[in-house]
Amino acid sequence: MPNITVDLPQDSYKIAIAPDSLSQLGAMMQQLNLGKKVVVISNPEIFGHYGATCIESLETAGFETCSHLIPAGEEYKHLQSIQKVYDTALVNHLERSSTFVALGGGVIGDMTGFSAATWLRGVNFVQVPTSLLAIVDASVGGKTGVNHPQGKNLIGAFYQPKLVAIDPTLLKTLLPREFRAGMAEVIKYGVIWDKDLFTKLEHHPHLDTLENVGDELLETIITRSCQAKADVVGQDEKESGIRAILNYGHTIGHAVESLTNYKQFVHGEAVAIGMVAAGKIAVTMGLWTQEEADRQDALIAKTGLPTDIPSEIAIEDILETIKSDKKVKAGKVRFILPTSIGKVTITDTVTPEIIKQAMKPYGRGLGKS
């Protein structure tokens, strides 16, 4: 698999993609001339699988290591968890030249990056993603943060890693549900950026498990998704323009996560629901065709992802929640809406009435008004 460069005005970095490469992490970091002290941040399950290999690789390369574990789950993505990371950094005398290594999925990556951005006003940060969602999306681009009780990722910073080290073999221990969640972000890239990727996914008979996807398509998924993310971030590092398209499906998706207390859906599942909803809004506004919306929804369903807003969630609650979305500008919510497979537009003209109209015809399971 090829390496990919995230080309930025400052702090460009490499996405290194290679099977069985976790054992080479220390050697890769050694080439970056980082400080000797490293804290590996993970959750207990992932660390149980890969912590020993990670630590051995780092120590073989001459790094002094310690570790910090955060319980798995979006419900632990808050400032209290960050405080405990700071405590570990303080006890182990981590310095400005030290490195925080995120060994885990998107939640671990977001929290590790935010910790690195704020400890001593910024220390080195390396991403070692272990979930498909983190590999294709969360580990690339420098978005870090934690949740506020009133909304997802409202507290955070843009802070780029020094390296993203992707070892696809780590996906072998990923739960099927988490694999499917990652596929939501892959489908997102197909809708917003890469029509050929979308078509390849459409033509593949089964997308619901790693085994059904197979090595050849997996390589395509990883490289094309990472390249798409790198291309967009390279044009707009801090989301002042085109980078907002990466939020396709996230506006209503984040609201669904928040309104279910981050317990009913994992992130990718909520994004899938949000993409279906965004597609319906785009059809209602005449931006794309019902046929294209049906193609998107069929691909999401083929992946085994949910497509419906739970019926117990009121549309009025969604409308209220999205007012706190990070993408609100001058009091208006910006939606990312498709205009064709592979192209989207950014608009702040989606009114509450349009959202209600888009949801109303689809019956049970799409929220109640």
Automatic annotation (TrEMBL):
This protein's pathway: Metabolic intermediate biosynthesis; chorismate biosynthesis; chorismate from D-erythrose 4-phosphate and phosphoenolpyruvate: step 2/7
GO CC terms of this entry: cytoplasm
Free-text function comment from the UniProt entry: Catalyzes the conversion of 3-deoxy-D-arabino-heptulosonate 7-phosphate (DAHP) to dehydroquinate (DHQ).
Pfam families in the record: DHQ_synthase, DHQS_C
NCBIfam families (alphabetical): aroB
Cellular localisation: Cytoplasm
Binding-site residues for NAD(+), renumbered to this chain: 106-110, 130-131, 143, 152
Matching SUPFAM superfamilies: Dehydroquinate synthase-like
Keywords: Amino-acid biosynthesis, Aromatic amino acid biosynthesis, Cobalt, Cytoplasm, Lyase, Metal-binding, NAD, Nucleotide-binding, Zinc
3-dehydroquinate synthase C-terminal domain mapped to chain residues: 182-328
Gene of this entry: aroB
HAMAP family (UniProt xref): DHQ_synthase
Cofactor: NAD(+); Co(2+); Zn(2+)
Signal sequence annotation: none
Major site of localization recorded for this protein: cytoplasm
GO biological process, one term: aromatic amino acid family biosynthetic process
Reactions catalysed: 7-phospho-2-dehydro-3-deoxy-D-arabino-heptonate = 3-dehydroquinate + phosphate
Annotated binding of Zn(2+), by residue: 185, 250, 267
EC code: 4.2.3.4
The species this protein was found in: Waterburya agarophytonicola KI4
Residues of the 3-dehydroquinate synthase N-terminal domain: 69-180
Name of the protein in question: 3-dehydroquinate synthase
One Gene Ontology molecular-function label: metal ion binding
Family note: Belongs to the sugar phosphate cyclases superfamily. Dehydroquinate synthase family.
Cofactor binding annotation: Binds 1 divalent metal cation per subunit. Can use either Co(2+) or Zn(2+).
